[in-house]
Amino acid sequence: MSSTPCDLAGRGVLVTRPRAQAAGLCQLIAAAGGRALAFPTIEIEAAGDRESARRLLAEPADLLFFTSRNAVDYALPLFPGGVLPASPRLAAVGKATAEALTAAGRAPDLVPEGRYDSESLLVLPELQDLGGLRALIVRGEGGRPLLGETLRARGAEVAYAEVYRRVLPEVEPAALLAGWERDVHFVTATSGEILDNLMRILGEAGRERLLATPLAVVSDRTRLDALRLGFERVELAERADDPALVQALCRLAAWAPAGV
Length: 260
What we know:
Low-confidence stretches: none
Oligomer: single chain
CATH architecture of the largest domain: 3-Layer(aba) Sandwich
Distance between the termini: 26 Å
């Protein structure tokens, strides 16, 4: 995949990530000649039951799985001494998660080599026979069951430390909708929940405009969700990272040249 950005020719890209996690993508969009429109459709906050997570994080484990950068950020203060333990093997689902672990003091032992998702992580040879091992999955409240179910099927004892939760922000969409045709040329959605929240926030008044706007996503699950919702054009990034998402926007720009 080329790292050279295309020319988005001033077109507006709706960035729907949590505000604190949108800066990198917004900068790449600007570097490609686009206009990043920050419109967070999800907020991240600490889980309601932090003490249960704190107890789990203090117990011994053979494998620690972190499903997101948020999992690292919200778990770190709950570990004894506020530091990552030295003994368990660390697994990161994605690139940003791996970078967060490294910044916190320990580079992960296991990171997927293809797409950055649970499916790619689970194909690693180290995770095929887990009989007798204890695995702790650090995640947000109500995360995907695939990782835990697969680890159990391979013999691991699995527990979940849920350290954060995702909430719907209070956002007023009227101004965005009023200038949609002029300002919003592409939309990004980096999770199915973000996409669902965007639909809820825009409501019926914005549904038709949203579905007609080309969408860039980072997982096939979200792509399929978007097609079921009725999006007319959905582009899947090659990997779940910001440069790949910008390249997906480049492909949309080539498909729909400015002024067409």
